Amino acid sequence: MQPPIEIKSAQEQRRLVALFELMSDRGREMLLEYAEFLAVRHQRPIASLEPLNIPRPETETVVAAIRRLVETFPMLERGALFNETSGLMAQHMMYARPAPEVINQLEVLFQQHYAAFVERRKLDPQ
Q1: Which residue in 55, 72, 74, 87 could disulfide with 46, CB within 3.0 to 4.6 Å?
Q2: How many domains is the chain built from?
Q3: Residue 7 falls inside a structural domain
C-alpha cells in the first residue's frame, strides 16, 4: 500500500472525523473496509507478468482478499476488474453474503482475467 497522504486542510480532517463519530461501530468498520478497498484500487501496479505465490490465509476478510489478489496478479488492469470486484464487495457488505463465498468468487474472477491476459499476450506479445 502507498504511504498515507496528508489531508489537505484541517477542515477536511474535521469533517471526516465528525462523520466518523456519527456512525455506529458497524458503520465505522464498513467505512474503513471500503476505504481500504479504494486504496487497493488506486495503487500502482507492479510490472510482473507472472502471478505471485501468495497463499490464502485460513481466515481472511474480503478487503484483505482483494488486496492479496491484486498483489498476486499485479499485471491485471484494475479498472477492468473494478466493476465486478466492487459488485462482489457490495454483496458482502450490503447483503451479508458470507466472506468465504465472496472470496472464492473473487479468486475465480481474478483467474479468469489472468487467463484472458495470457491469451492476449499470445496474440500480441509486445
Answers
A1: 74
A2: 1
A3: no
All three cell numbers of 27, joined, read 458503520
Q: Residue 48 is part of which domain span?
A: 25-123
Domain-located, residue 2: no
Identity (one letter) of the amino acid at 62? V
90: which 3 cell numbers?
457490495
The answer to whether position 8 is within a domain reads no
Provide the 10 A C-beta neighbour count for residue 90.
13
* Cα dist from 63 to 6, 37, 45, 72, whole Å: 23, 6, 17, 14
Could you report the per-residue pLDDT of 61-94, keeping only the tens digit for each?
Answer: 999 999 999 999 988 888 788 889 999 999 999 9
Distances (CA, A) of 64 to 69, 103, 109, 119: 9, 9, 16, 28
Q: What is the pLDDT of residues 39-65, one digit of tens each?
A: 777 765 545 789 999 999 999 999 999
Return the axis-axis angle of helices 99-123 and 78-95, rounded to nearest 10°. 170
Q: What is the mean pLDDT of residues 21-30?
A: 90
